[in-house]
Structures are given as structure tokens and as C-alpha cells.
Specification:
Elements lengths: L61 E6 L3 E9 L5 E10 L3 E2 L2 E2 L2 H19 L5 E6 L5 E15 L2 H15 L4 E13 L2 E4 L6 E15 H13 L3 E7 H9 L2 H6 L1 E6 L4 E7 L2 E8 L3 H12 L3 H11 L12 E4 L10 E4 H25 L9 E5 L8 H9 L3 E3 L5 E2 L12 H11 L17 H12 L2
Parallel strand pairs: 1-6, 3-19, 6-11, 12-17, 17-18
Antiparallel strand pairs: 1-2, 2-3, 4-5, 7-10, 8-9, 8-10, 12-13, 13-14, 15-16
Helix pairs in contact: 1-3, 2-11, 4-10, 6-7, 6-8, 8-9
Length: about 475
């Protein structure tokens, strides 16, 4: 017998005293029918040191131009002290000379730009010389690069950060392509990863993880040319998908992870955000205009009539009442006033395959980029084509993600209000970028008054003569 073990069966068994520290944070007893815990049982986060302040915008008035395949939008606005953006004037016209995001007719595009910008200038009583523009032309692509440079056991300086980013830019250069964004998405000092700002860190080697977005040089030069012909100077060229994400996501969604799918007229853009940064972008040459063309072909009607039917009666999913609901339309070649009747079910049967195809292409692009099967973050749909009834449930089924409809946040004075403002997400994001939202992304290719701007100009000078 071991004398160190009590053997008296009558000896009282000591119970562990339950203190606040030893209490379970989750209910474990099945006897509790109400799982809501009292305040004393909840371990909450410490309070924030300071309350969050409204975003500090740049001083001044900014003009932006969203060149879409179906419409052009010009916004003139400024940032307010309460963190909102206020639209002072807007122009909103049908696009001409644009197809699938690319300029195909310089003269038509110039006229449309002049009319759109002129309408906004008249409304705001201001004249624009400089403007920020969206990038959807030139087949934009995303690339990830690791750039390294030796530090030699000293503290990392801002100049070191500029040099390692410049190294990544030089590696990203491809003949016939122009770098639009160089976005640092993380640094590493020696074997320590996930560094947000390496300045002051002591290390032997500094590594930068860079997300580079580029586009065909010829398409970018054509865009710049048509703006110059319109007497405008392009001060910022911003990826359309990045702009849409800035507009419809709040800070928590960008931090936790979300995918923005902007279903425009001629293109559908994809932007994957995580940890506050842009992780991936992609463009698909399909959008709401393709749905309109499908309808016009099936129903033998004009594009304008097909667009009216799509926006007024269109849906992505059939309902039980669609077969009995009748719609009148004017066919091509018929005399004015002679109308044809079709069921709404026939209308939906023409829309559904194209929306399904678009969402399946989105799913495939995410899978190919490694953001499909492994990621289950929320998808935010925006853009004019996302307003069709049933698109949200269909997207949730095809993408296997939670889905919500996104509209511009923190902006007042748009041409449309409520959910319909989803068609102005890109323009709203452009305005946010021009007013100061670009600071959070540390884009090395954005106009920058800091000292390392000279280094960037030197890099571009060398590139142009290599």
C-alpha cells in the first residue's frame, strides 16, 4: 500500500472552488435552456484607447470619370469633415466608342467624355483640368512578386522600403505592359513574416510581397490620348475592381476578407480583399450588355427595347407566376403601335443562362487564382447587372458563399439612391481614391509628394529606355 494515497472511503472529497477565472466561457450543461450569458460571465475585449475618428480627406475638390461600356459617369466632389464624400455635381451619359471596356472609336469616345464631363462641370459650377479615371481596358492582370534586398544587420529605413519596392517593380516589367498599381501586401524581416511597416526593424534581409496590376501599354496610351483630346489630364489611373471595393466594403470586410464582383455593362470585374489589402483582381469580358443582346436576339426586338424589358421585368430565376404574366413589346420591322405579347417566363429563360455563365466564370477565375475552394469569405455583388431579381441567390448557390448586394458607402449626392446606386460603385470608389483613400494602400505607382517620388521617376526613366 502506498502511504501517500488516502484510502479512507469516508474521507470527504474536496471540490474545486469555481472562481471567475475557472468558469467556462461557453455553456456546457444541457440543463440550461437559455444560452444567453449574464454580463459577469462574459470576457470582453479591452476598450479602444481612442474612439475612431472620421476619415481625413485631402483638401480640395476632385473630379473622376468612370468610362464604362454602357454609360459614362463623371463625379465632382469633396471630402467632408464627418468622413463622408459629397458629390457637388455629376454627369451621366450613354457610352459611345467603348466596347468591353476598351476604346474602339476615338472620336465617339471623345464626344461622350466631353458631354459627360461638361454636364458635371455645369452642375458643380467648376471646370476640371485633372481627373482620375478607372482602368478596365487593356486586359488588366494581377501578379504577385517577392522582392528582397540585404540590410546588413541595421535598422530598416524608408529608403530601404523604396528600394525593395523599386526592385519588385523592375521585376514586374513586361514588354508591352504598363504597371498600374504596385501594392505592398506585407513585409518580412529575416524569418519574421506579416510585418506591416518594417521601418526601425533590425534585420539582415528585407523582403516585400508585392501585388502588381498591369495592362496593355497600347490601350493605356489610347486612353490617355482620348483624354488629352478632351482637354483633360489623367492624374490617377485606378483599377475598376479596386475602386468598386473601396466603395462598397467597410473596413472590417476588407480586413476579414471579401470578394467584390462588379457586374458592369461590358465587363465583370473581381477584387479579392483580405487583411485590409487588395489580394487579387480579374476582369471578364462579359456583362449586362450581353444579356441585353441575348434578349434582343431571342425576341427580335431592338437593343433599347430589350434593355427596357430587362430592367423592368428581368430576373435571373424563374418563379411560379412567370408563365402567366404577359409582357408586350415592339418587334423590329413591325409598324409602330403593333405590339407582340410574350410571357415573362420566356424573358427570364433568355436572361438566366447568361447570368449563370458569368457567375461560373467568376467561380473558375477564383479557383484558378487559389481563392475559390479554400476561401469562404463573403461575396459582395455590385454594378448595374447585379440589380436583376434573383442574382443574389443564384450567386450564393454557384459560388458557395454568403452573398450581399453592395452599394456605395459614405457618399451623398449620387444620381441614384438606395440599392440602385450600385451602378455607381466604381465612380464612387474613384472619388474616394482621389480624395485620400489611396493612402491606406501605399501604391508605389500613385502620384506621391514624398521624397521617394524621385526614385520612382528614375525607375520609370530607366524602364522607358531599357
Amino acid at each position: 500500500m502506498n502511504d501517500l494515497v488516502p484510502t479512507d472511503p469516508e474521507a470527504p472529497r474536496k471540490k474545486r472552488r469555481r472562481t471567475v477565472r475557472s468558469r467556462s466561457l461557453l455553456p456546457v450543461s444541457s440543463r440550461h435552456k437559455n444560452h444567453e450569458r449574464s454580463e459577469e460571465h462574459i470576457l470582453s475585449l479591452p476598450p479602444a484607447d481612442e474612439p475612431s475618428l472620421p476619415r481625413h480627406w485631402r483638401v480640395g475638390v476632385f473630379g473622376v470619370l468612370d468610362i464604362g461600356s454602357t454609360k459614362m459617369t463623371c463625379l465632382i466632389g469633396r471630402g467632408e469633415a464627418d468622413g463622408t464624400l459629397r458629390v457637388l455635381g455629376y454627369g451621366w451619359r450613354r457610352s459611345r466608342g467603348i466596347r468591353n471596356g476598351n476604346i474602339v472609336d476615338l472620336k465617339e469616345a471623345e464626344q461622350a467624355i466631353r458631354a459627360t464631363v461638361g454636364q458635371a462641370e455645369d452642375a458643380a459650377d467648376r471646370r476640371l483640368d485633372n481627373i482620375a479615371v478607372n482602368l478596365s481596358c487593356g486586359h488588366p492582370e494581377s501578379h504577385l512578386f517577392n522582392a528582397r534586398m540585404p540590410i546588413g544587420g541595421r535598422e530598416v529605413s524608408e529608403a530601404d522600403m523604396g528600394r525593395v519596392v523599386a526592385e519588385g517593380q523592375s521585376r514586374a516589367y513586361t514588354e508591352g505592359r504598363t504597371v498600374i498599381h504596385t501594392l505592398p501586401i506585407g513585409y518580412a524581416v529575416d524569418d519574421t513574416y506579416g510585418i506591416v511597416d518594417p521601418r526601425g526593424q533590425v534585420c539582415e534581409q528585407l523582403t516585400a510581397r508585392l501585388h502588381v496590376v498591369d495592362a496593355a501599354t497600347a490601350a493605356v496610351r489610347t486612353l490617355d490620348s482620348v483624354l488629352m483630346r478632351s482637354e483633360l489630364k489623367m492624374t490617377n489611373l485606378v483599377s475598376a475592381s479596386l475602386a468598386s471595393g473601396l466603395s462598397v466594403l467597410d473596413a472590417d470586410e476588407r480586413e476579414l476578407g471579401a470578394t467584390v464582383v462588379d457586374m458592369g455593362g461590358g465587363t465583370t470585374s473581381i477584387a479579392v480583399f483580405g487583411e485590409g489589402m487588395l489580394r487579387h483582381t480579374a476582369f471578364l469580358p462579359v456583362g449586362g450588355l450581353h444579356v441585353t443582346r441575348d434578349l434582343a436576339g431571342m425576341l427580335s426586338t431592338s437593343l433599347d427595347e430589350a434593355e427596357r424589358l430587362k430592367t423592368k421585368y428581368g430576373a435571373a430565376e424563374l418563379s411560379a407566376e412567370d408563365s402567366s404574366e404577359l409582357i408586350t413589346l415592339q418587334k423590329i420591322g413591325e409598324e409602330t403601335g403593333v405590339l407582340t405579347t410574350v410571357s415573362r417566363a420566356r424573358l427570364v429563360s433568355a436572361i438566366r443562362p447568361r447570368i449563370e455563365e458569368t457567375l461560373e466564370l467568376v467561380r473558375d477565375r477564383l479557383d484558378d487564382a487559389g481563392f475559390g475552394r479554400t476561401g469562404r469569405e463573403r461575396v459582395v455583388l455590385t454594378g448595374g447587372a447585379s440589380l436583376l431579381d434573383g442574382v443574389g441567390p443564384m450567386a450564393a448557390r454557384i459560388l458557395d458563399r454568403p452573398v450581399r448586394l453592395g452599394r456605395p458607402l459614405g457618399i451623398v449626392g449620387l444620381p441614384e439612391i438606395g440599392a440602385n446606386s450600385a451602378g455607381f460603385s466604381t465612380a464612387s470608389g474613384l472619388l474616394a481614391w482621389a480624395a485620400g483613400a489611396d493612402r491606406g494602400f501605399h501604391d508605389a505607382d500613385s502620384p506621391d509628394p514624398r521624397p521617394n517620388g524621385m526614385l520612382k521617376r528614375l525607375v520609370h526613366f530607366i524602364r522607358g529606355r531599357a
